[in-house]
Design goal:
The complex is a heterodimer of chains A (185) and B (223). With 185 residues, chain A is of the alpha+beta class. Chain A contains three helices and nine strands; from the N terminus they run H-H-E-E-E-E-E-E-E-E-H-E. In chain A, strand 4 and strand 5 form a beta hairpin. By secondary structure, chain B is an alpha+beta fold. Chain B is 23% helix and 27% strand. In chain B, strands 1-2-3-9-5-6 form a six-stranded antiparallel beta sheet, with no helix packed on it. In chain B, helix 1 crosses helix 2. Classes of the chains: A alpha+beta (185), B alpha+beta (223). Chains A and B meet through helix 1, helix 2, strand 4, strand 5 and strand 8 of A and helix 1, helix 2, strand 5, strand 6 and strand 9 of B.
Chain lengths: 185, 223
């Protein structure tokens, strides 16, 4: 048999390239740079509110953080029950967002969309109800937002966009007053 | 009917078989060469295209307007594999695209890479959103060191003209109006426009920032 035209090998290369492309797309996320969850997990324990230091040229918790936003996060772990996030929202620009470990933003609420300044948000899995957690039902349930999380572990991130540089210390104080803790404890 | 097998299998004399085997051998060597070539090409193509489509995006996942590109489903739990891989590798936690849109630019409007040795004029019209901000980073996403600790301008603090339009000057040395310091020289820059709660959305609820509202980036001069 004579050597065929390289057509066969071009087709082979194309098919192989397609397969390798698919494998690479599946593998690339788990290789090299750390994802946001891993970066934030390095900053402190779960189920507690941690302020992220403002990004500076030498140091930032995540790449491309907004220099004019102040952030605080709670790495929630629902294995032992729901987690409660409390915040006094001083500003309609604030945003609270919940993420899975992979960075899926499955819930978010803006300060401007809330009728009240005091936010009481309970994160639970679908099979945990707030009553089943063995705690008293919230005093008046319309003041509490219960969010069903599709995952046991994730991140709650509060963003405080600044109206100007002079607002930074005010936003940092307001973020320091937010809390995150296991529900009922 | 009883056709006796008359032809015995041909006996190949060594003098015949050797050239034939050599031809076979060179043929299979060549096949192997082609196969390895095809495999190496497939490796480069497969990994290269995956890397490019995850890092930079493709028409499947991103919208490009001039120098700006934005991932349509960033942060969305229903996002495709490329977008999810992009978010995981970026190390960021973007808001889902129904709440915020992010656009990055690595070049000026003429397509030349942004360079901290150059001075740029960034001009645009008002954006219909609750809050938005333009920040500058080095090519790795870190803010640029500068004495006035100015890394961005947002919709609340920016000096604007009467019609809501604005001009930012990205330069190493101080400039009037909105001066965005370019830090030390000799590096490539990335601009990010973040738009929180855009008021226009498409049918899927994804925020829309019309292409003509993404600012022009014009290079003025280089050192």
């Amino acid at each position: 048999m004579r050597v065929r035209l390289p057509g066969f090998y071009i087709a082979l290369a194309a098919v192989l390239a397609g397969l390798i492309h698919i494998v690479a797309v599946l593998l690339l996320p788990s290789l090299a740079p750390r994802n946001a969850y891993a970066r934030l997990a390095a900053l402190g324990p779960a189920n507690t509110m941690i302020e992220i230091p403002a990004a500076t040229p030498g140091r930032q918790a995540m790449p491309m953080m907004a220099p004019d936003v102040r952030y605080a996060f709670c790495r929630f772990d629902l294995a032992a029950g729901p987690v409660r996030l409390k915040a006094a929202i001083p500003d309609e620009l604030w945003l609270i967002a919940l993420y899975t470990r992979e960075g899926d933003n499955f819930y978010s609420v803006a300060g401007a969309d809330m009728k009240r300044a005091q936010v009481d948000l309970i994160i639970s899995t679908e099979d945990q109800t707030v009553e089943e957690a063995g705690v008293d039902a919230p005093e008046s349930s319309d003041e509490v937002i219960v969010v069903n999380s599709p995952v046991k572990e994730g991140i709650a991130l509060i963003r405080a966009p600044l109206a100007g540089p002079s607002r930074a210390s005010f936003a940092e104080r307001a973020l320091a007053a937010t809390s995150c803790s296991p529900y009922g404890r | 009917m009883t056709a006796a097998v008359q032809n015995s299998p041909p006996l190949l004399a060594p003098s015949h078989s050797r050239p034939w085997r050599e031809e076979e051998a060179t043929h299979s060597m060549r096949s192997l060469g082609y196969f390895i070539g095809a495999f190496v090409a497939a490796l480069f193509l497969g990994i290269g295209s995956a890397w490019y489509m995850i890092e930079r995006g493709s028409p499947l996942t991103t919208t490009k307007v001039g120098p700006w590109s934005g991932w349509v489903n960033e942060g969305n739990p229903n996002a495709d594999l490329y977008t999810r891989a992009h978010v995981a590798r970026s190390g960021r936690l973007p808001l889902t695209s129904t709440v915020a849109r992010y656009f990055t630019a690595r070049t000026d409007s003429a397509g030349r890479l942004l360079n901290s040795d150059c001075e740029y004029k960034i001009e645009g019209g008002p954006i219909n959103a609750r809050w938005w901000s333009i920040a500058v980073y080095d090519e790795y996403g870190a803010p640029l060191d500068n004495p006035s600790a100015r890394y961005s301008f947002n919709s609340e603090e920016m000096l604007r003209h009467a019609d809501g339009s604005y001009r930012i000057v990205l330069a190493r040395e101080a400039r009037p109006e909105n001066w965005l310091p370019a830090g030390d020289g000799g590096r490539h820059l990335t601009l990010m426009l973040r738009v929180y709660n855009p008021r226009e959305t498409d049918a899927a609820g994804i925020g829309i920032v019309p292409g003509d509202r993404l600012p022009k980036i014009e290079r003025i001069a280089c050192e």
